[in-house]
């Protein structure tokens, strides 16, 4: 790509797998690009990409069946796009794009994510200035004005929106108060009817702007985040388990050492199977980067993290920024993760090779 760090947009999910193939959306200089895996590698989908020229480059993907929706992000701009797969041409077709209403006082938006609730209504959340904002749509095309969920975050903080059973969860970091915070919207309630802020954890520098989640079939969720401890031989990440009743358990892991500096964790799982945590590591002694792929196992009330493989490239500079699908991996499909470097290279790896 003509765009360094093309997967850098935390906490966005940029890929999906379905019966039609494996797909990836990455940023490029003239807009987002849709790629499809074929026997020779990854092929640009020219018709869609032509329609996307000059659109905001940073994409979060929500794919269900033959339809895929994206929220595209740029400085004070959010655009939702719809794709529909056409079996006769074996290609996705661009259906429409719509810009979300942005307040005139917007100074910056770093990132945004999109989800759908049990009533098939759409939600987008984003950081804007020092606020967490959420937008709602009945059909994906007609969007509400934003509703403010928080107005006291740090300019470095971000949020994540997740669809759960019968509800939508928005989670964000607040480095000003050293807290991870959640608010819940029950499906069918009014747009502005949200729970009071729920403190996931507060204090001890436990908040930072790296977060990613996976939702299990029983309605439980695991969130992985980076903290702001940054002290030698202290955990840099926190695995946060949310049970079906909404109770949180926080498990610190992955120490900063003289050799390893970890960053940017993501989490996903195979349906009714293994849990994978993946993050970037800078080898501080060699000043080289690699991707650490780990299996996460819960036994009784104890969590274990076991590194399975290190993914390395020939690039001496920075590489990392792992992304995967928003949906869980299915047993009989590829289980792809992606990362990128600052030279414009994008890498893929199939976790299926480890099973």
Protein described:
- The chain is an all-beta fold and 355 residues long.
- It has a domain at 210-355: 6 Propeller (Neuraminidase), CATH 2.120.10.10.
- The chain is built from 1 helix and 27 strands.
- It has one helix spanning 46-51; strands at 15-18, 21-28, 31-38, 41-44, 58-64, 67-74, 77-86, 91-99, 112-116, 122-128, 131-137, 147-150, 159-164, 167-174, 179-186, 198-202, 211-215, 221-226, 235-242, 248-255, 260-269, 275-283, 288-299, 302-311, 319-323, 336-341, 346-350.
- The strands form 7 sheets. It has a 4-stranded antiparallel sheet with strand order 1-2-3-4.
- A hairpin with a 2-residue loop joins strand 13 and strand 14.
- The longest helix has 6 residues, at 46-51.
- The two termini are 30 Å apart.
- The model has no long low-confidence stretch (mean pLDDT 96).
The overall pLDDT average reads 96
Radius of gyration: 19 Å
User: Per DSSP, what share of the residues sits in E-state strands of 2 or more residues?
Assistant: over 45%
DSSP strand tally: 27
- The first-level CATH class name of the domain at 210-355: Mainly Beta
Q: Structural class, please? A: mainly beta
Largest sheet: 4 strands, antiparallel
Write the H/E string, N to C.
Answer: EEEEHEEEEEEEEEEEEEEEEEEEEEEE
Poorly predicted runs of 5 or more residues: none
What is the CATH architecture assignment of the domain at 210-355? Answer: 6 Propeller
The CATH topology of the domain at 210-355 is given as Neuraminidase
Strand order of the largest sheet: 1-2-3-4
Give helix % range: under 10%
- Termini separation comes to 30 Å
């Amino acid at each position: 790509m003509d765009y360094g760090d093309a997967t850098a947009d935390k906490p966005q999910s940029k890929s999906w797998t379905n019966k039609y193939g494996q797909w990836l959306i990455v940023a490029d200089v003239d807009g987002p690009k849709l790629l499809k895996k074929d026997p020779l590698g990854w092929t640009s989908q020219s018709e869609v990409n032509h329609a996307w020229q000059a659109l905001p480059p940073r994409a979060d993907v929500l794919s269900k069946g033959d339809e895929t929706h994206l929220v595209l992000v740029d400085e004070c701009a959010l655009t939702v796009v719809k794709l529909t797969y056409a079996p006769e041409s074996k290609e996705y077709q661009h259906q429409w794009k719509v810009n979300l209403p942005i307040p005139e006082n917007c100074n910056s938006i770093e990132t945004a994510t999109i989800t759908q609730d049990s009533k098939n209504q759409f939600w987008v959340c984003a950081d804007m200035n020092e606020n967490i904002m959420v937008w709602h749509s009945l059909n994906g095309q007609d969007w509400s004005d934003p509703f403010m969920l928080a107005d006291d975050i740090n300019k470095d903080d971000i949020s994540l929106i997740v669809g759960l059973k019968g509800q939508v969860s928005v989670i964000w970091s607040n480095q000003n108060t050293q807290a991870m915070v959640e608010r819940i919207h029950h499906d069918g309630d009014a747009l502005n009817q949200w729970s009071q802020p729920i403190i996931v954890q507060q204090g001890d520098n436990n908040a930072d702007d790296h977060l990613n989640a996976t939702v299990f079939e029983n309605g439980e969720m695991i969130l992985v985040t980076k903290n702001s401890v940054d002290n030698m031989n202290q955990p840099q990440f926190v695995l946060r388990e949310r049970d079906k009743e909404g109770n949180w358990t926080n498990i610190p892991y992955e120490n900063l050492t003289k050799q390893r500096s970890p960053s940017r964790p993501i989490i996903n799982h195979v349906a009714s199977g293994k849990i994978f945590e993946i993050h970037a590591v800078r080898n501080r002694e060699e000043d080289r980067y690699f991707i650490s792929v780990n299996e996460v196992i819960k036994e009784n009330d104890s969590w274990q993290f076991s590194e399975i493989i290190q993914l390395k490239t020939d690039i001496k500079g920075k590489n990392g920024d792992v992304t995967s699908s928003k949906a869980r991996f299915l047993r009989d499909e590829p289980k792809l993760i992606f990362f990128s470097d600052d030279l414009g290279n994008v890498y893929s790896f199939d976790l299926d090779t480890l099973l």
